[in-house]
Amino acid sequence: MKKRKKRKKRKKRFNWQLTAKISAVFLGLIFILGVTVPLPIYVETPGAADALTSYIKIDEKPAKVDGKYLITSVYLQQVTGLSALVSLFNPHATLMSAAQANSGTTAQNSVKINKIYMNSAVNEAKVNAFRAADIPYKRHYNGLYVMAIQDNSHFKADLKVGDMITAIDGKHFPSAKGFQDYIRKQKVGTEITINYQRGNDHKVARQKTVALAGTKYLAGIGIMLADAVDVKSDTNIQANMGDIGGPSGGLMFSLQMYDALDKNLNLARGRTIAGTGTIDNQGNVGEIGGIDKKVIVAYQAGAKIFFAPYLKPTKENLQYEEDGKTNYQEAKAVAKKYAPGMKVVPVKTFSEAVSYLEKH
């Protein structure tokens, strides 16, 4: 019998080519996911600085002035993993959670809220401009916009963000304080009737009051509210702000409107003037977000003056401030580093801004 020869086992060779292909596909998938899949993270970056003449009209004509008043904005967009990584190396970018970016609500509600704030800013700016130009006007108080609804509110099944409350128990009040005082006079658990408007539809809801946060016996309805007003005059001012939202343009709207309304006035005097800040019907200027980025775009647009809301920097105030700085402190620090030659002017009121432009 012939003896069979023992076959030697061949060692399997490592297939480098196949491994390289698999790795390339894997890395390609990771790259595609990093580029295309949005994360629950947003980035805020410097936006734009636009001349308000493009947006505001008086009696159907552009509200022209001898110079430029700029409205400054920030860009806020959702990021992917790759763009988030890139943002870390941008000194003018701020990453934030979805909750921070949308103020604790949905992106859709955030858009509605910012439109309401913009509408309010325009109307209160009209009040200040008409009053300063000594032009008769009427400020009509329509009611209260629903800005947010707490989870414990019994009205959460009825009301939506953007609805306008016009009466409570059949009573209409000429101010937010009137509505609030009436509600707080009720006992917690008392049924009240709310008349409200959603678009062109008029609706009614009846539910019980709840205890205000941090209290046991003080009644509320568990809803965050904002004034809904209209301002009318024989002189018609229109402001079509397009996609721009939020309350921060109030001060600059007021200045543009006033300078254009009074033909004997020339506040701008050929200058490019920027700034930011909310405005109320008494002319008080309030703080806003993203002022560091607004200083940068204002400088890039050629502004030599930048109005910043002023708040006295006390220990109590600073603990609630972004990065522990007031708007004015932050704007001044950013201008020193990134906007040389641009004057940051602190203002508490519309009148202070007007006075500065008249004197300088």
From TrEMBL:
The protein's name in its UniProt record: S16 family peptidase
Family annotation (Pfam families): PDZ_2
MF GO annotations: ATP binding; ATP-dependent peptidase activity; serine-type endopeptidase activity
Top-level taxonomic group: Bacteria
Source organism (scientific name): Weissella oryzae (strain DSM 25784 / JCM 18191 / LMG 30913 / SG25)
PDZ domain mapped to chain residues: 138-203
PANTHER family assigned: ATP DEPENDENT LON PROTEASE FAMILY MEMBER
GO biological processes: protein catabolic process
